[in-house]
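If you are new to this repository, start here. Below is one unmodified record pulled from the training split, so you can see the exact layout before writing a loader.
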Amino acid sequence: MCYDILIVGGGPAGLSAAINGRVRGKTVLLLSSPMEDSPLWKAERVENYLGLPGVTGAELLTAFRRHAEASGAELRELRVLSAMPVGDRWYLSGEDQVFEGRALILAAGAVRGKPLPGEERLLGRGVSYCATCDGMLYRGKTAVVTGNAADLREEANFLQGIGVRVTVITRQELDGLDP
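And here is the target side for that same chain:
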């Protein structure tokens, strides 16, 4: 089957794209990793989603997915290994399957580097990747902002502006520490 839209990524952006494609009468196939692999899934509390304050990331992602499925989008758990344009079509391959579509939306999320010791275990329990999304959870507390992203200082300044005491440690500084 040739889909009107192929989407890679099952987070908020991919699921929103799936719903909007279906609203426009398009056939949609969304391919993603399991929901439980998403950083959003691990968030213990989301306070900045309109109309749903205090919901967990798992609850929010489940609601998004349920909405996309109810719209008629086809969702499959599959890791996409390649995308190739041929003429006016796109071909995606993953595992032992190939999918064809007229348009491709990449909504695979941000690429993160090698995790720090304990980072994956503490994701959603003190470790966060989004100052705008989770900053209010740390208001009045001390937080460490680390990494090597170009907007590291901007994120730290944002947190300070909402009342978080911030210490910035660059990834280069961390790499020099003994575990």
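Two things worth knowing about this chain: The two ends are 51 Å apart (CA to CA). The chain has a mean pLDDT of 89.
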